[in-house]
């Protein structure tokens, strides 16, 4: 015969909960260290779940490459999930502020770990954060593009205005030159007046020349009387 406690156990079975995961935040990533390398190092201390490293801004990478630097992909920060929370805490206590170490002379030997354990932090929080950051970056990019369009349109408007002003100025100069040429040429009345004013002078000159060539009458009479 089933007792009341047996019935309760059938209705409400106890759930077996496994170890809770713990998440570590890396505030900086050694130069050019990739997610696979991070996983290999961290797996030495315990079972690792998810890993996410934030890539650097593509524009920063582009400027570095143009300036003669390395074009390799870099990561700025990261999150590591350990399957067991106590392992995550122990890793932070052991590694934070210490050199990466490994084989002497290795590329990352002298780089220092900068990490922090995130209590009550879930991977879903990271997903939300990344989605928010992506939306912020997208909005910022749209604002920058809008600003660039405004500046471009303003520049084109100024160019058109300058062209119009130059055309108006050129027309005025051409009109002034035409007016100056017209004023420098004498009109028909002016020509007639100048001719009429010259005519008396020419007549006087002709009369004077006639007088100088004419022989005096008293001289002629004296010659014929002899």
Layout of helices and strands, plus pairs?
Elements: H1 4-11, E1 22-26, H2 35-42, E2 48-55, H3 58-66, E3 75-82, H4 85-95, E4 115-118, H5 123-184, H6 188-213, H7 217-225
Antiparallel strand pairs: 1-3, 1-4, 2-3
Walk me through this protein's architecture.
The protein is α+β, with helices and mostly antiparallel strands. Helices cover 59% and strands 11% of the residues. It is built from seven helices and four strands. It has helices at 4-11, 35-42, 58-66, 85-95, 123-184, 188-213, 217-225; strands at 22-26, 48-55, 75-82, 115-118. A four-stranded antiparallel sheet has the order 2-3-1-4, covered by helices on one side. The protein is elongated. It starts with a helix and ends with a helix. Mean pLDDT is 77; it is low at 1-10.
How far apart are the first and last residues' alpha carbons, in Å?
Answer: 201 Å
Strands ordered across the widest β-sheet: 2-3-1-4
The arrangement of helices and strands along the chain is HEHEHEHEHHH
Per DSSP, what share of the residues sits in E-state strands of 2 or more residues?
A: 5-15%
| Helical proportion, percent range | 55-70%
What Rg is obtained from the alpha carbons, in whole angstroms? Answer: 52 Å
Biggest beta sheet summary: 4 strands, antiparallel
């Amino acid at each position: 015969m089933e007792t009341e406690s047996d019935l309760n156990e059938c209705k409400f079975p106890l759930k077996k909960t496994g170890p809770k995961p713990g998440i570590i935040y890396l505030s900086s990533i050694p130069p050019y260290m990739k997610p696979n390398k991070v996983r290999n190092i961290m797996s030495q201390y315990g079972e690792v779940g998810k890993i996410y490293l934030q890539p650097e801004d593509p524009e920063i990478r582009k400027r570095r490459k143009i300036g003669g630097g390395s074009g390799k992909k870099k990561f700025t920060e990261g999150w590591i999930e350990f399957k067991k929370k106590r392992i995550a805490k122990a890793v932070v206590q052991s590694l934070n502020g210490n050199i990466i170490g490994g084989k002497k002379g290795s590329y990352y030997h002298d780089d220092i770990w900068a990490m922090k354990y995130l209590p009550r932090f879930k991977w879903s929080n990271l997903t939300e954060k990344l989605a928010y950051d992506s939306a912020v970056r997208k909005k910022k990019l749209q604002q920058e593009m809008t600003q660039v369009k405004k500046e471009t349109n303003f520049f084109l408007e100024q160019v058109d205005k300058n062209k119009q002003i130059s055309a108006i100025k050129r027309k005025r100069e051409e009109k002034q030159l035409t007016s100056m040429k017209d004023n420098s040429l004498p009109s028909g009345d002016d020509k007639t007046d100048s001719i009429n004013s010259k005519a008396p002078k020419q007549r006087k000159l002709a009369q004077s020349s006639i007088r100088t060539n004419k022989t005096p009458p008293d001289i002629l009479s004296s010659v014929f009387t002899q």
